[in-house]
């Protein structure tokens, strides 16, 4: 060391090192360094950090940048190595890529392109929901929030987001590269468990034919509360808007009707359908039989029905002192 140079050892008081030209912190079992300790070392020209078991995480990300900005010469850089984490062990600290860039998002997901294996598009998550939600509930809440995707963090928080346009997502694509050359510092958190935001709906009707003028119930099953529900019962009553998921309807005419419930969420909508068969009760019904029946001749019966639909008639013929004959039409 030249006599004109000043040196500062690891156990020297920081104030005594402000004008140091050379700092030797080698072989001191140092695992990390605080950036604030080096802010005022404006005269430092040479630094030796070799022989220390550095933990190369984001707390050390400032060091390579600071050395470059201050034009400080590093002594024995190849011997200034990481000890932890294991995937970076024995790698020179100044060869580690501390990714401290950002792409304007705190949480993202990388949707893969199955044909190339690379990232096809980026999902940016903008809202967080409580923990302990099922995937179905998280997905439904994200749909109700107007988002395209749901996802879970390692802490089981539910996140909702949307896919970025290709010209916007390019800044986030580097964070999808695997493996990373070093710790991810300052960039977005990657969510690996991602799924489309969908709202599962189903419509339940009576399940069996009903009679005209009979009150029937329809139930719309939804995992979350929504806004407007538009009902179409398939008859002459027209469209009906409400927020109720259970509704009663009376049909006045017989027939087979398609029932549709449409859920409106923001500028999107989703529908569920079922069908119902409505039967009309007869105003008049009678079984007409001949007044005289001869042995070994066929018997002709007539059913008189006025106003009824979907009917079946059961009858029996009783002969004195014999078993009755039965029939059904």
How would you describe this protein?
This protein has helices at residues 62-70, 135-144, 166-169, and strands at residues 7-9, 22-24, 46-48, 54-55, 73-75, 82-84, 107-112, 119-131, 149-152, 157-163, 189-190, 193-196, 202-204, 210-211, 215-221, 229-232, 239-242, 246-250, 255-265, 268-279, 284-288, 302-306, 314-317, 325-328. The protein is rod-shaped. β19 (255-265) and β20 form a beta hairpin. The protein folds into four domains: 21-98, Ribonuclease Inhibitor (Leucine-rich repeat, LRR (right-handed beta-alpha superhelix), Alpha-Beta Horseshoe), CATH 3.80.10; 101-196, no CATH class; 202-279, Immunoglobulins (Immunoglobulin-like, Sandwich), CATH 2.60.40; 284-327, no CATH class. The chain has 329 residues and is mostly beta strands. The strands form seven sheets. The protein has a six-stranded mixed sheet with strand order 11-7-8-10-9-12, with helices on one face. Helices cover 7% and strands 36% of the residues. It contains three helices and 24 strands. Residues 228-263 form the PKD domain. Residues 104-197 form the WSC domain.
């Amino acid at each position: 060391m030249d006599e004109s140079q000043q040196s500062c050892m690891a156990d020297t008081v920081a104030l005594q090192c402000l004008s140091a030209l050379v700092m030797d912190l080698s072989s001191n079992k140092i695992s990390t360094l605080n950036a604030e300790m080096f802010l005022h070392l404006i005269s430092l020209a040479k630094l030796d950090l070799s022989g220390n078991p550095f933990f190369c995480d984001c707390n050390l990300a400032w060091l390579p940048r600071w050395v470059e900005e201050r034009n400080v010469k590093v002594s024995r850089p190849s011997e200034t190595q990481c000890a932890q984490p294991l995937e970076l062990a024995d790698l020179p600290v100044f060869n580690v890529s501390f990714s401290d860039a950002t792409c304007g998002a705190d949480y993202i997901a990388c949707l893969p392109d199955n044909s190339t294996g690379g990232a096809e598009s980026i999902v940016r998550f903008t809202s967080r929901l409580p923990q302990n939600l099922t995937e179905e509930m998280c997905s439904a809440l994200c749909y109700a929030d107007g988002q395209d995707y749901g996802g879970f963090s390692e802490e089981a928080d539910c996140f909702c987001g949307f896919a970025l346009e290709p010209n916007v997502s390019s800044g986030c694509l580097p964070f999808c590269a695997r493996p990373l050359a070093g710790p991810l510092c300052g960039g977005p958190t990657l969510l690996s468990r991602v799924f489309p935001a969908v709202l599962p709906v189903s419509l339940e009707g009576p399940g069996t034919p009903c009679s005209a003028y009979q009150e029937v119930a329809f139930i719309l099953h939804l995992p979350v509360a929504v806004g407007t529900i538009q009902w179409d019962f398939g008859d002459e009553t027209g469209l009906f808007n409400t927020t109720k998921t259970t509704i009663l309807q009376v049909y006045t005419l017989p027939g087979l009707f398609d029932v549709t419930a449409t859920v409106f969420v923001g500028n999107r909508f989703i529908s569920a359908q079922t069908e119902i068969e409505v039967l009309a009760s007869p105003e008049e019904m009678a079984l007409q039989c001949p007044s005289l029946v001869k042995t070994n001749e066929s018997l002709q019966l007539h059913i008189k029905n006025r106003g009824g639909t979907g009917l079946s008639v059961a009858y029996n013929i009783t002969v004195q002192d014999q078993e009755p004959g039965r029939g059904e039409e």
